[in-house]
Design brief:
The protein is of the alpha+beta class. The protein has 3 helices and 11 strands; from the N terminus they run βββαβββββαβββα. A hairpin with a 6-residue loop joins β2 and β3.
Length: 153
């Protein structure tokens, strides 16, 4: 798998019928190791071990319904009351992050009304914070720690 700008971690893999699976930190089961999953597991590890997000408050690929179709954000982070505070979209390392990716994030936000949006391909990371006074998201140059994320809005 490709080298990412996220910290490496001690992960477990297994081979089944010539396919590689990685042990998911949150779901506690082996999932197919795709380039996107590689990024998702690294970002999840970063959020839990470097930004202090409780593992139990991270949801992966949870289905949300918008009245017409379903969405599956890669990672949703909640506060202790179960309110989603950040949505993370992970792309494969070779995928360029574009306005289309941000549009996808905004679709998720229409349903969830989060404080932070984060998109990453494991190499480049973009994060936005909801600014209540301005009524819009503003780009920030860091990934917020849990304490900051959980108490916002």
């Amino acid at each position: 798998m490709m080298q990412l700008t996220l910290p490496s971690f001690d992960y477990k893999t297994k081979q089944v019928l010539n396919k590689t699976y990685i042990l998911d930190l949150v779901r506690k089961k082996y999932v197919l190791l795709t380039p996107e999953e590689w990024v998702r597991q690294h970002m999840l590890h970063y959020l839990i071990h470097y930004c202090s997000y409780p593992k139990g408050l991270c949801c992966l690929e949870k289905r949300i319904y918008n009245g017409m179709s379903y969405y599956r954000p890669d990672i949703m982070v909640c506060n202790k009351f179960g309110v989603t505070k950040m949505v993370v979209e992970c792309k494969a390392p070779y995928i360029k992050l574009t306005d289309k990716t941000l549009g996808q994030m905004m679709q998720y936000n229409r349903q969830l009304m989060v404080n932070y949006l984060l998109v990453t391909n494991g190499i480049t990371h973009f994060c936005w914070q909801w600014e209540e006074d301005l009524g819009c998201f503003q780009a920030i140059n860091y990934i917020p720690v849990y304490q900051t994320c959980a108490i916002a809005r």
